[in-house]
Amino acid sequence: MAGIMNGKRGLIMGVANDRSLAWGIAKAIAEQGGEIAFSFQGEALEKRVRPLAESLGVARLFECDVTDMASIDAMFEGLKADWGTIDFLVHAIGFSDKNELRGRYVDTSLDNFLLTMNVSVFSFTAIAQRAILMMPDGGSLLTLSYYGAEKVIPHYNVMGVAKSALETSVKYLAMDLGPQNIRVNAISAGPIKTLAASGIGDFRYILKWNEYNSPLRRNVTIEDVGGAGVYLLSDLASGVTGEIHHVDAGYNVIGMKAEDAPDM
Ligand code: NAD
C-alpha cells in the first residue's frame, strides 16, 4: 500500500542519526507520500541530519532546542512562512543526565528531575501549543514513550517518571484538542539501540531480556515504529486519540519470564 500520506505535510522533531526512532517514522512517511520538515537540536547534529534529510528530499530544516522557547517560536514562524499549515507533528525527544540513568531512582537530583521533565515532557505541550495554530482543519500529534512509564525498569529511573507524565499529557491534550479534530497519541516503543538509549545503564541486558521474553521473541526496529507512526498520523487512525500504542513485540502483555528464555 502506498500513498497513505499523500497531500499531508508535517514536522518531525528528534532525528539525530539513522538509528533514531524519528528517522524510522520519517522514512515511512516519505514512502507513503508525505512531505516532511525536520528539526535538529544543534550544529553538531546538523552534520548528520542534513544528509539524511537530503536523501528523503526534505528541504526544510530548522534548528530547535526545546529548552529555549524563543527557538521553538522561531521554528514555527519559519514553518508558517513556508507552509502556512501542517497536518502532523512527531515529537521524538527525550533527555536526562546519564549519571542518573543508572543506580537508584531515589538518588535523583532536583536539577536533573526538572531538566528531564522539561525536555522530555513539557516540550511536547509547548510544541502542541504552537502546532495547533497551524492545524485549522485538524491534525495528528505523536510522541514516543516507553514501558518504563508503566512498570519499574532498572536504571530507567527519572525517565520512567517523565514518560508517565508524558503519557498522561497525551490524554489531557487529546481531550483538549479533540473538538478541533486534532488527535494526540503516543507510541510506546520497545527498546532499540539509539544514541539516547546508550545513556541507560545495562541497556544491552534490557534488549536481551525483551528479545527472549516478548511474544514475538525479538526486539522491534525503527521500521516497526515507522509503520505504526504512519498509521497514527494518517487518516487510517481517524478515530484514534489519547492512545498509548505499544510497538514492543508484545512485551507489555507478559506476566513472567518465557519458559523457553535462556537464563541470563
Ligand atoms: P535519539 O538519540 O536518536 O533521539 C533523541 C532526540 O532527542 C535527539 O534527536 C536529540 O537531539 C533530541 N533532543 C534531546 N534534547 C533536546 C533538546 N533540548 N532540544 C531538542 N531536541 C532534543 O534516540 P531515540 O531513542 O530515537 O529517542 C527518541 C524518543 O524515543 C525519545 O523520547 C525516547 O525516550 C523514545 N524512546 C526510545 C526508545 C529506545 O529504546 N531507543 C524506546 C521507547 C521510546
From TrEMBL:
GO terms for molecular function: enoyl-[acyl-carrier-protein] reductase (NADH) activity. Pfam families: adh_short_C2. The active site is at residues 146, 156. Pathway: Lipid metabolism; fatty acid biosynthesis. Its EC number is 1.3.1.9. It catalyses: a 2,3-saturated acyl-[ACP] + NAD(+) = a (2E)-enoyl-[ACP] + NADH + H(+). NAD(+) binds at residues 14, 41, 65-66, 93, 163, 192-196. InterPro entries: Enoyl-ACP_Rdtase_NADH, NAD(P)-bd_dom_sf, SDR_fam. Belongs to the short-chain dehydrogenases/reductases (SDR) family. FabI subfamily. PANTHER family: ENOYL-[ACYL-CARRIER-PROTEIN] REDUCTASE, ENOYL-[ACYL-CARRIER-PROTEIN] REDUCTASE [NADH], CHLOROPLASTIC. This is Enoyl-[acyl-carrier-protein] reductase [NADH]. The gene is fabI.
